[in-house]
Amino acid sequence: MPRYPLKPLAALALSSLLLGCSNADSSVTPTVDSASMANPVELQHWQPSHAARAESWQLLANDQRLAADAEGLWLLDASGDRLARHPGNFYSLDTRQHNAELVIATTQASSQQPTLLRAAAADLQVHQQLELPATTYRIENLCLYQDESQNLHLFVIGEEGMGDQWLVGNPGLLLDTAAHVRSLRLPPESEHCAVDDQQHLLYVSEESVGIWAYGAHPEAEQSRQPVDMVEPFGEIQEMVAGLAAVPGGLLALDADARQLHRYRLTENGWDSLEPVALAGTVEPERIAAHSANGQNQLLLVDGDDGNLYQSRIDWPVSALPAAAKVPVVLPTVETDPIPSPGDAADDPAIWLHPSDPAASRVLGTDKRNGLAVYDLNGAQLQYLPLGRLNNVDVRQGFQLGEQRVDLAVASNRDHNSLHVFAIDPANGQLSELGQITTALDEIYGFCMGQSSDGVMYAIANDKDGRFVQYRLDGRQGELNGTLVREFAVATQPEGCVVDDQRQRLFIGEEGKAVWALDAGENASTEMTRVISTDGPIEADIEGLAIYQHPEHPYLVISSQGNDSYVVVDAEPPYQLRGSFRIGLNSQLGIDGVSETDGLEVTSANLGGQWSLGMLMVQDGRKRMPEGNQNYKFVPWQSIASALQLD
C-alpha cells in the first residue's frame, strides 16, 4: 500500500518496489529505444568573471547564478559578473528562494559541516545561519526539501551509502538547532540528488547502476523505486552523473556518453523521452536547472576540465496534478517509546480519573510483550510485561463483589484470552484480575461496551472474521465471562468500538468497510455499511473510536493505507465530515504519524489544551529521533477547527 514515498504511483503494488535489486520492473522501465536520440542541444560556453572553477552551481530567478568554491559563495549575473560574495570554503549547493530571501544549503569543506544560510537574494547578506553537526563521512551532495506544511528539510548524501535527513526550518525561518529525522540507507555509489517537493520524491544516482526514487516525506518508509538503469537493464549507456528535478519530471546526465536523459513522471511511473546529445562537452558531470515558461534553463559543469556550458531546452511536460490537500493537525504530546522494538505499539485507551481529569491515564498495548500506562504528558508510569496484548479498552464502574472497580481488558494473543485488569481510582495503577478464555483460534481485535443498565461486555474478533461477545460478571466476587453472541464478517477485521449512549457497535473489516450493528446481546446481527475503502479510506481500516459530542457523536477511523484519519457522523446516514493527517510539529520537535494501527478519542474536559478532549494514536514510524514506536496526542480542538466541526 504505497504511502508518502511514492504518492504518484498509487497504481503500483508494493511488490513492484525493488529493495536492492538493480534490474527494473517492467512497469517503470523507460519506453524508448536506446538508439533514439533527440537533436543535439546547442551549448554555449560560459566563462564567469569569478568562481570559474567552482563545481557547485545553482540557477536562480532573474537569470542569476550562485556558486560555491574555496573562496566562498558567489552571486553572479548572467554575464558572470560578481554581485555579492559570502566568504568561506564551501562545496555542494542547493537553494530555495522565497520572495527576497534565499535559503542556501552548503558544506564547509574543512569541518564537513552542512550549513544553512538565510540570506538576502540581492546581496547575500546573511540574516540567519544554522550549522549541523559534522558528519563521520565525506559529504557528496546536499538537497533541500519542503514538505506539505512548509517545513524545510535537508538531505545529506554521503560516500559509501551513508546519508541523513534533517529538519532545518519551519515557514520563513531556520531552526535554532537542526533535528535529526532519520538515517538513510543509500547505494554505495550515491553522489548526486534532486528533490521534487510536490510529489515528495528524493532522486539519488548510483553511478554505475542507475537512478532511484525514494520517499522524501519525513514519514516515508525506506523503500525505493527505479527510474532508469544503466544498460543492459535500462537506457543509460555509461554512467549516471548529475540530476535536476523539473516540473513533471527529472533530468539526468550520462557523463561518459555525453547525453542528457529526460524523464516524465506519470501516475504509473517514469516515461523516458528521447535523450539529448551534449556535443562539445568532455564529461558533463553536474547540472543545474531553472524552469520557466515551458523551458528549462540549464547550466552544465564539465567534470574533466571544469568548463561551464549553458543552454535552454523546451519542456512540454506538465507536472502531475497535486493530490487533494488534506488538512494537517499537529501532535502536542508524544509518549515515551514502547519498550519492545519493531512493530510493537498498537492500540491505546484512556481511563478518566473520577475527580482530577488531569490525572487521567492513557493505556497503550505493546503487542510483543505487554501493556504500558502513561500520564497526559506522555511519561510512562507503569509497564506490565504480560505477553502479546494486542487491543485494549476501558470501562468504569464494574461490580466486583462488594466493591466497584474500573476495568481495563486486553486481547491476549498468547492465550487467545481476555486479559482483565483493575484500575485503582486513586492513582490509576493497574493490577491483574485474571483471564477469560475465548472460543477464538487467533484472537486479534477487541473493544468493550456497557448497556444502559450497567452490564459490561467484552467483544473480541479473530483473524478469520469471527466476533464473540461476552457478558462480564463479578457480582459473586469472581470475574466471569459468558458468551452471549457470535457473528462474522467475510474477511479479516480488527478495530471495533461501542457507542454506549446509543447501543451501537461499529466494526472494521480491514480491507472492505466499516459496519454498524446493534450492540445488545440479544439484538439482530444485521449489519449496515457505514463507509467503504473506495472513498477517502484506503485499506487497511484499523482503529475506531467515538467522540461524544454534546449533540451528536463522531466516529473517528484510522485509514492506514494513506496515513490519514476519517471522521463521519456516528448516526445514520453516517455523513462524511472529512479527513486529516497528523504532521510534524517543528516547534515542539515531535514527528508526524504514519501507519496508525489503533486509536482512541475522548470528549472529556481534561483541562488546558485538552478542554474539548483529545485524540490518541499509535505511530507506526518513530522519528526525530528514530526509535521504538510510541503514541501521539492531539487536542480535539485542532481537529474540530481543521474540519470545521461544530
Mean pLDDT: 92
Low-confidence stretches: 1-5, 7-36
Helix content percent band = under 10%
- Basic shape: elongated
Largest sheet: 5 strands, mixed
Describe this structure in words.
With 646 residues, the protein is mainly β. The chain contains 1 helix and 49 strands. The strands form 12 sheets. Strands 25-46-45-44-43 form a 5-stranded mixed sheet. The chain has a 4-stranded antiparallel sheet with strand order 1-24-23-22, with no helix packed on it. The chain is elongated and about 95 Å long.
Q: Any chance you could write out the topology, listing elements then pairs?
A:
Layout: E1 44-46, E2 56-59, E3 65-69, E4 72-76, E5 82-87, E6 90-98, E7 101-108, E8 113-120, E9 126-131, E10 139-146, E11 152-158, E12 162-170, E13 173-185, E14 190-196, E15 201-206, E16 210-215, E17 224-229, E18 240-246, E19 249-254, E20 259-266, E21 269-277, E22 284-292, E23 295-302, E24 308-314, E25 328-329, E26 333-334, E27 345-351, E28 361-366, E29 370-374, E30 380-384, E31 389-400, E32 403-412, E33 417-423, E34 430-437, E35 443-450, E36 456-462, E37 466-473, E38 480-488, E39 493-499, E40 504-509, E41 513-518, E42 528-532, E43 541-548, E44 553-559, E45 564-569, E46 576-582, E47 599-602, E48 614-619, E49 630-635, H1 636-643
Parallel strand pairs: 25-46
Antiparallel strand pairs: 1-24, 2-3, 3-4, 4-5, 6-7, 7-8, 8-9, 10-11, 11-12, 12-13, 14-15, 15-16, 16-17, 18-19, 19-20, 20-21, 22-23, 23-24, 26-49, 27-28, 28-29, 29-30, 31-32, 32-33, 33-34, 35-36, 36-37, 37-38, 39-40, 40-41, 41-42, 43-44, 44-45, 45-46, 47-48, 48-49
